[in-house]
Amino acid sequence: MLKILKSIRNSLLILILFTSTAFAVGKPSSNYDGAYTYSDYCRGSKNSNAYDGSQFIIRDGIVTNDRGGAGRWTIDEKKSKVDEKGKIYIKGERRGNKSIITGNLNNDEKKYSVYQFKRKVGGKSQYYGDKQYGNLKMKRKYKGDSDYVPCVINFKRIGDVPKKVVSKDDRKITEISINSKNTNDDITLLNNDGKNQKVRVELRNLESITNGLIIVVPSSTPNMDDELYYEKQVNKHGYATAIVYGAEPRYQKKFTGSYTSSMILYDAIATIDEVSKQYGKPKEVILIGSSTGSLAIFKAGWQDLRNNYPSLNLITKGFMINAACPDVSEVKYSDKIQMYAINGQQDESTPPWVCKNLKDSSKNPNLHLLTYAGGHHFESQMYPPSKFDAESMHALPTCSLNYKSNLHQIIKRRDGSKEWNGEEKGYKKEQKKWFGKNCIGKGTLQGYAEYGAKQFWADVKSIIVDKIDAKSLKGYTE
Asked: Over the stretch 332-344, which tens digit does the pLDDT of each residue have?
């Protein structure tokens, strides 16, 4: 009985603490509107992470998560807010772990010793990372734990509230559900293995399906602003369009390790099959997507996969935006598909020189390199104007992706010190941990570059509508 009473008392204390904190924040105010990243250190937790990758967006004093970057936060938008004095309350979950953040964005008192990327445990040193913007407190309850873990949070304002490009759209949107699979890696994809997965797809311009279908595939996050923007750029070219929301279910269920390029490609295959079944087979299919999605698009030309999945043979063109190219691919490539690797000239996250390595190693005449002025995400108005982002993650400058003729992947550090051979070691959690530890770096020029973007979207029209040869395009690069 004493244990039960003690448990009830502790629960009430936690409830009172969090409830009073929530009501302590006044009316939402736009004084602190903007985009924020954050770093954290949670004492006693092996899950501590200096830089999460997610972004919090404060708009009109209401806190949301744009699901960009790591995209691991789900925010209770009805309760998460900032008042005119900077008091902030955020309630949500990160990877299913319940979390509450409280504090004041004006709190710049040096209550905690701060060391860049060094951990100092003991005394008042509860946080590591760069001193940024606003010391906050967090309590997080990890799945399976009986109590909350105290954390220290540091917010960093990285820019204004992202602008939404809104245009009138009277077109009919048809939503369908496709039967896809969680094909974690390329061998699983080749063998048609993996747990079944329902995925949502939005279709537009279905009256043009006989002309062809343009499928916009996502990157590895549930934020679909870019994909919606891409669809708006290509919807006047006489094709039906499909936007695949494949990251959504993977981020909401237990299977959330990552949304891989193999899953993205399987989602595209399932989309072609379902659209063909319901609305008739399109004359051709074009894929367009960014980052991890671009790697999936590249694999759509692998002959072994096209042999196993007949619908892949309908794909005649692929636009790899912010192209995440492998350095080497020994896989047999189809001569029936034109592939366009698109990069910003100053992009240090998915650098154009990596795609040049692929072009030189593969000797594929149907792989065309297109580069334009700007950095990472130069093509999308969903991003603010280009500037250097010290916190933006990248991997390809540190590690190379290499594919053997049997589709197995080898990841190599560019300094030659380490490698992960997927054929020998597999592709599950240990590979992801190794990749995160050995390949992830920070810093790249990122954001919209109007001049390069206009040239790129003009080239897209020239390819799809005017059938112009690659060498005549504005962005063509040898």
From this structure: 999 999 999 999 9
